[in-house]
Amino acid sequence: MIQLLHVVVLWFYLLPSLTCDNLVCFFSPIVEKEKMFQLTVTECSPDKLCFMADARYGNYSALSARGCMAKGDCSQVHSVHFKGTVYTMSYTCCDWPYCNSCLGITASSSLLFLLMVSIIICLLAYWLGAVERSSP
């Protein structure tokens, strides 16, 4: 059971290093939230992270964007001009593959999901091992 846990942990931590540490993220230009846009996959340069951007007009979340940006630019807030209106754009960065797939998924919820999947896999492996040992 512990061996399986080691395999799962190594898979999640070593797989990105096998791809030369280049992070794979989703990209979309600045678009209105109501408009559908087909996300494309992009590979970031080694010094960049995935980002999700949210542009607000007052309290209204109106625009979004995704892609790669320098670590030093993360958590920045600045003004963006879009179709004649000025919005306040804020950026949130993350550092694992495809982590900017959904604005509602945060690092803590993703890590919790991975932890739960790992626990389920370990319990299944333990249960299957117990069933095999009890068979005549």
UniProtKB/TrEMBL annotation:
Its main location: membrane. Keywords: Cell membrane, Disulfide bond, Glycoprotein, GPI-anchor, Lipoprotein, Membrane, Signal, Transmembrane, Transmembrane helix. It is a lipid-anchor; GPI-anchor. GO terms for biological process: sperm-egg recognition. The chain crosses the membrane at residues 111-131. Residues 1-20 form the signal peptide. It is found in: Cell membrane. GO terms for cellular component: plasma membrane; side of membrane. This is UPAR/Ly6 domain-containing protein. It comes from Monopterus albus (Swamp eel). The lineage of its organism: Eukaryota, Metazoa, Chordata, Craniata, Vertebrata.
